[in-house]
Amino acid sequence: MILGLLLVLVYLVYPAAAGVIALLPGRANVGSPPPGFAEITLTANDGVPLQGWYRAPENGAAIILLHGAGGSRATMRGYAEMLARHGFGVLAVDLRGHGQSQGATNRLGWQGTLDVGAAVQFLQSRADVQRIGGLGSSMGGEVLLGAASAYPQIAAIVADGATARSIEEMLALETNRPLVRNFTARVMMTTVQLLSGQQPPKPLLDSMIEADATQFLLIAGGANAREVAYNQLFQATLGDRAALWIAPDAAHTAAFVRHPEEHERRVLDFLQAQLVNLR
Prior knowledge:
The longest helix has 20 residues, at about 1-20. The chain has 10 helices and 10 strands. About 40% of the residues lie in helices and about 20% in strands. It is of the alpha/beta class.
């Protein structure tokens, strides 16, 4: 009896609750923009208003900056300031349902491609922007990777801590294919789908493969075996179009804090090479 109750809790109740939590509003006050940044409003193609910070580039290249699940542009302030110090334009956006943006929350980022589209449209309207890149943390990285095929205008993408946001993406790893390894994730993601009415987006690998002119820098926390495995798969599939840095002893998305100098060097070298130092 007790064992049966525990199994129900572990395999049904807890993952279903996680699915409910994934749809809870993540809106919050993000505070004042960093120095030199302006508050802006974008509108996605489905009419959802999105809030962001923008700073024009000094080198012709602007970076779409996206946060992780439950976060906001405020959590990306350090990244925004780093990029701005080196002359990059920055468009830091609150994804729908997060920060001060409107729309339904989905902490798996399933509708993120619409938000990326709004960012690309804004940057393309700016005379001071000649090239577009992207940098995303966790869910933000997955959103950018998932939007790569729809928006080839994003010539270079840095994804820190990207793994999987759908069952199809989970099953890309052979170790996840036994049902015992993916059952709870199926319950959680099915709960999200049923309650939100949304469908899982195009798988990350399909999007990256189709974006055949886009270059990628993948960052994985070395202390997170699952994260490392996914990013090794991404890099092996994409070959020369993807560089992979496994940050030693770093937890999920912690490379920016644990190895700040190396993180800055790797990210800036990549973005400079792909967006600025072009012949």
